[in-house]
Amino acid sequence: MTSRDYYFDSYAHFGIHEEMLKDEVRTLTYRNAMYHNKHVFKDKIVLDVGSGTGILCMFAANAGAKHVYGIECSSISEYSEKIIKSNHLHNVITIFKGKVEEVELPVEKVDIIISEWMGYCLFYESMLNTVIFARDKWLKPGGLMFPDRATLYVVAIEDRQYKDFKIHWWENVYGFDMSCIRNVAIKEPLVDMVDSKQVVTNACLLKEVDIYNREARGPVLHLSLPSADPPQRLRPRPGHLFQHRVHQVSQEDRLLHSSRCCHHTLEADSVLPRGLFDCQEGRGDFWQYRCQAK
Fold this sequence. Notes:
Shape: elongated
Radius of gyration: 21 Å
Order of helices and strands: HHHHEHEHEEHEEHHEEEEEH
Structural class: alpha/beta
Helix content: 25-40%
Oligomer: single chain
Number of strands: 11
Strand content: 15-25%
Number of helices: 10
């Protein structure tokens, strides 16, 4: 089994879908984007890329879509068909099990593509290329993407207790020095929750992706960090937080946008071994680290 096979197989377990469905920021954002704009979905053909339990398909159907096609590679697709039938939407929604790159739809083009492709730190799940493939193959000229734009930010947080528990703990493990693991742990991003009071800086933009217009570059979508002029600066303390925002936008009118972090969700936390300092101005210099990251 390859890592890609494991990725799809992991989504057959109900636990990960329970976690996503209970993420009310995520789920209600999609629902509101559709329910508050039923005129956009009325009598339209909709495609859901990575349909999972079928929740977005059902939102689209209730918003007035003529027909909704869902593509899901994992075995959860079998349950989504039962869920859809239990909710009397099986005449409006059709689920295809398989990879987007291999599935053939009974229609040549669709009016709208919806997808919850975002992972931790926005790009973790590597589904963006798949969404772009579906867009290029099936989205009709002038069609809509939900979402059609995403942005990734970084801010600094202060949490000495957390750093001591996760990092400095390795310096004395039952009387033994395991600092060699500490040096690795400090580089490893963590997924966790933080309190809004721990955020101590402004947010700096790392990356913005226009999903509607972006071109895929071969089998892997390369997402290099852009240069900023003037350099973006933080006033940092040890620890920093990545957060992302997605925009449910029509290409004509702004419909809805959602901050996935809302001051409390830690998408990916990485502890810096030292603070960020600008000796000349006395401010944290995030730009230096962005250059090193590239």
